[in-house]
Each structure stands twice: as C-alpha cells, then as structure tokens.
Design a protein that fits this description.
Cobalt-precorrin-4 Transmethylase, domain 1
C-alpha cells in the first residue's frame, strides 16, 4: 500500500509492502488499520526541558578545563555525574575517577563531583597539595549551608534522601550528630521524640511525589517544623518531571534516557508510569531502543544525559510523522565554573598571550555560557 501525504509544504510517500493485498488504497480507515497491523512509529513527543541541567553543564565544563590546564592524569572524586557515557569519555581523555581521596597521588589535580562532598573529603583533597576544584552544584551547596546553620542553632534535621546516594552521603556528613535520613513516612514515624526543634531538608534530585508525602507526614509528626522558604528540590529536576508528565499520557511508550544510578532519571521512569503510560523504559543509548515499539513514543532524558544521545535515539526511532517538541518552560539558568578555576583559566590565557606575543582582547573566554557542554564532550581527545 502506498499513501501520499502533504504536510507543511512537502509531500511524503509512505510505502508498506502488504503480502496478499492486490490493490492499494488511500482510505484513512484502511490506512489506520494498516498502522495497527504493522509496527510503525508514527511520531515522537520530545519533552523540553530535558538532559543536562545547569549544575551538570558546569561540572562537565569545569572538568574539561582541568584536562586542558593540567597534564594527565586529572583525578575526580566519584563520578563527575551519573552517566556512564560521560564518565567513559572523560576516562578516555585521561581522567581517573576514585572513591577514596587517599588513593590520589600527592600533588595531583583533583576535582570533587557535582553531587557534593563531605567536609572531611574536601579537606583531605586540599591536604594532598594539588590543585582542587569543587564542582558541587550550587543547589547542593545551599542544602549543605542549611544543614550547617540549623545544626548550629540546635535543630534536629529530618533529611529526605536515598540511602547511599553521593549527594545524601555528603550532605549528612556536614552535621552527622544532628541529621536523620529518611525515605518515607514510615521512616519519619520511626524517629524518636526530639526535645530540640526540628527542621526538614531534602536531597535536591527527589521527585515531588517522593518529597510531598514525606513532608506532609513530617509536618503532622512535628507541628513546629522548620523548612526553608525556597524549596530544596532542584528546579531543573522539577522542570523535567513536569515536561515528562505532559507527554506520558499521550504516548504508547516512553523512553527515558539516562543511567541506572541517576536518581532524577529513575524518578522520570516512575512518574511516567504513574502518569498512565503503559510502557516505560529506561535506556542508556540508541542501541537499547527495542524493535517492537509502535504508535506515539515519548522521549525524555535525565539531567545527566547528553543531548546528542537524545537525537541518536530519535534517529533510531525514525518516526513517520517526525518529532514534536513539547515545551513547558524555557530554562535560562547558568552556573559558571568555580571561581578558583576561572582565575586559573584567566592566568593561563594571559600567559599564552604573553608567550605568543598576542593580545587576548576579543577572544571568547573558555567558560563562556554560550559554549555547549555536549559539544565539549564530543571534542574531547582520547589520551594517547
């Protein structure tokens, strides 16, 4: 059967080979029946925002600048972000990821990951005598500050976060004697009766579903509960969840791109299922796209997933009617690299200008917000 369709000023011919069908038909009813009998992906609904958030963007740029500024290897405490493709790309470029600062040779440059590190880890890195860049997301820094401030004022802190997650581990280490991690209302119910005032804080990558139920129960358990005036939940995580909730009900299947150890990616998977989508799959890349998808496919990506992977997935899906981007908000947030790294880059630029006998005037700084982090990853050269 052949169907010719005019859309947006162009004509597209859609051809199906139908054994045993001696005739062709352009009847809409017959065409819809045909679509139902053949595994055809009609269109893709692409969520926006998706992919890299401002904190991830900053961390990737910062580690890239360190690779350019120092001879390899450059060390990074924990994975810079929770995405195996990104981590592998940096490893190929000469970055060594470690889970113990003590394994870093003395004097070597160290980056601390975007998830935030315990104060003793930060100090241990500095004691090694190398150049240290803390790429912690500013939103995580805000929570660390809240923990430190509330603990100093005598509060007991109920912290809603995932066991073993790097952000939760680093946050709890700020005031271990005053903080109590919970994941559910049941965890709150198991807490003792505190004589001190009580505050509640959250891991930034929680979904609203995870946070709101626990928050409401905590308020009932501790009526005089203190909570920050500005939510701890990451705005980028919230935006990606909102966008996904727009596409999930209209999708026959939703593909969430991201790594298994990414908390915000898993939240997108859970919420898509709750939104009523019958089939929700987390995938790492285009190679994991199943071959039996059909109809309308929703696509989104966790905050650690590169944009080029998104388009590789869409190319693999090859939707007949193309891709419709569903935008719920335009993000314009930007976090510059840490100040000490910016100062280093400025010094390197100045030294290069003197050495080459040229003026740096008019040259774009390496940390300019217009630089795309995904493009930087693509241009990283493997270490010889």
């Amino acid at each position: 059967m052949a169907l010719t369709e005019a859309r947006g000023g162009y004509t597209r011919a859609i051809v199906f080979e139908a054994a045993g069908s001696p005739h062709t038909s352009s009847s809409p009813a017959n065409y819809q029946q045909r679509l139902a009998s053949v595994a055809v992906i009609e269109r893709v609904l692409l969520a926006a925002p998706r992919g890299f958030c401002a904190g991830v963007d900053m961390a990737i740029k910062a580690l890239t600048w360190m690779i350019q500024a120092f001879d390899p290897p450059v060390y990074c405490y924990h994975e810079i972000i929770h995405n195996r493709q990104v981590v592998r790309r940096f490893e190929q470029a000469g970055v060594v990821f470690v889970d113990d600062i003590a394994t870093v040779p003395e004097g070597r440059p160290i980056m601390l990951s975007a998830h935030g590190s315990a104060p003793e880890v930060v100090q241990a890195a500095r004691d090694l005598g190398g150049y240290v860049v803390d790429a912690v997301c500013p939103l995580v820094t805000k929570v660390h500050h809240e923990v430190k401030t509330r603990a100093a004022k005598g509060y007991q802190i109920v912290y809603v976060g995932h066991e073993g997650h790097e952000e939760a581990v680093g946050t709890m280490a700020v005031a271990p004697e005053a903080i109590h991690r919970v994941e559910s209302a049941r965890g709150v119910a198991a807490l003792p009766e505190f004589k001190e005032p009580v505050a509640v804080l959250a891991q930034t990558t929680l979904s609203h579903r995870e946070w709101e139920g626990v928050l409401e129960y905590t308020k009932r358990r501790f009526p005089d509960l203190w909570q920050p005036s500005i939510s701890d939940l990451c705005f980028a995580t919230t935006n990606r969840q909102t966008a996904m909730m727009e596409i999930a009900p209209a999708s026959d299947a939703v593909l969430v791109i991201g790594s298994a150890n990414s908390s915000n990616t898993q939240s997108l998977v859970d919420l898509a299922a709750e939104a009523g989508c019958r089939r929700v799959l987390r995938i790492n890349d285009a190679d994991e796209v199943p071959g039996d998808l059909s109809g309308t496919i929703g696509v989104t990506a966790g905050a650690s997933a590169p944009e080029h992977v998104v388009w590789e997935v869409i190319d693999r899906l090859a939707p007949v009617y193309g891709t419709q981007e569903v935008t719920v908000i335009d993000e314009d947030e930007y976090f510059p690299p840490p100040r000490n790294l910016r100062d280093l880059l400025a010094a390197v630029e100045a030294a290069a200008a003197v050495t080459l006998g040229s003026s740096p005037t008019g040259r774009q700084p390496l940390n300019d917000r217009s630089i795309d982090a995904s493009d930087l990853l693509d241009r990283l050269s493997p270490r010889a």
